[in-house]
C-alpha cells in the first residue's frame, strides 16, 4: 500500500537534514563531513563481501516522525552508514562520502490493515528493496564493492507492530556492533540525545592487536593455520555435486525442553547454545555420503570482546572463527551431551592472543585469492549464533523485539541461529540446515525421539 508520506510529518528538526521522497516512500539523509574516510583493514576486507540482511520485529506502535528524527541523529555518530565503498588506483578499499549531498537509505512501507503476526514470516518482505539498494546488494554477497552503499534500512508499519529491516555491509561491523547501533538508535528514539546513556562509537585499532612475531613463511603455512579456524582451502570441491542436491530444513529449537534436558543430565555448565551445537553435529552426520573415517568440521564464530576488555561501542569485526574437527564415526557414536561438552571446551579455550594471531593471518591472505575458503561441502558447516546478546535493551518506547528474522544461508553451508516465537508465544531459537536427502528421514525421527527441536 502506498502511503501519503507527507501527511505523517510535522518535523521540528531542520528539514535540510533529510529529504522525503513521497513518490516512492523513501527518505534521503544529508551527508555531513565530506572529508570523512576510512581504509578497510584486511580483517574487515575478509568479511566485506557479505551484506547482513535481517529484520527486528516488534509488537506495539512506532512514531514515524520520532523514528526518522532518531535515525537522522544516529548518523551523526555512526557516520559510516551513509558512506559508499571506493577503490583507489592501488586497489585499496575505502568507505567515504561520495560527492552527492544526500544518501537515500530509508524505505517506508505502511500496512495499517495487516496484523504483524500474519505479515512478518517472510524476511524478504521486511528488508530494503531496490528502492534504496542495487541488485547485487539485494543478493547479500558481492566480491566487487566499488560504488556500493554501506547500509540501508526499511521500516514496515503494521496495525499492531512494526519491523526494522536492514542491509548492512559486514565491513567494520560485527553482530555486536549492529546490536549496539540499534540500542543507540532506540535510546535516541525513546529519550532523545540529551538523555543518551551510551558511549559514542569508535573503530577498533587493529594494529594495536597485531602479533608481529606471528608470521607465515608461505601460503601452505597460512592454509594450515586456517584449519584451526575451521577453513579448509579447496581448489575444487569434489563433493559439490552432492551438496548442490541438498535439501533445506528449517528448525525450531524448544528452549524449555533444552532446559529440562540440561537439568536431567546434571550439566549446569553447558549453555543452550552448547546443546544446540551438539544436536547440529548429529544432524549433519546422518548422511550415507559420509563414511566413518572422514572428518567433519564445524566452524563457529565467537566474540573475543570480553577476552580483551573491548566494549560494545568499539566497531569492527571483533570475533574469531574456531573449528572443531571430529571423525564422522566419533560423532555418530557420541550423544548430544558429549558433543556439547566438546563445544564448551572449545569456546572456553579462546583467548585474545588467538585474535592477535588471526590478524596476522588476515594480513597475510588478504592479497591472495580467498574463494577456496568458502566453497561449501558436505564435510563441514559454519555456525553464527545471534542469540548471545540481550535484545530486550533495544526498546522503542515500550516495544522490544520478539523476533530477529534472518535470511537462509544454508545453501552456503552457513547456519544462523536466530530467535522467534512459536504459536504459543514461547521464544524459540531458529536456524536452517542444508543436508543430503538420504538423511532427512533420520533427522525427522531424531527430532521425535528427543523433542528438543521440530522441523517447520
UniProtKB/TrEMBL annotation:
Name of a matching Pfam family: Transferase
Organism: Dictyostelium purpureum (Slime mold)
Protein name: Uncharacterized protein
GO cellular component: cytoplasm
Annotated keywords: Transferase
A molecular-function term among this protein's GO annotations: acyltransferase activity, transferring groups other than amino-acyl groups
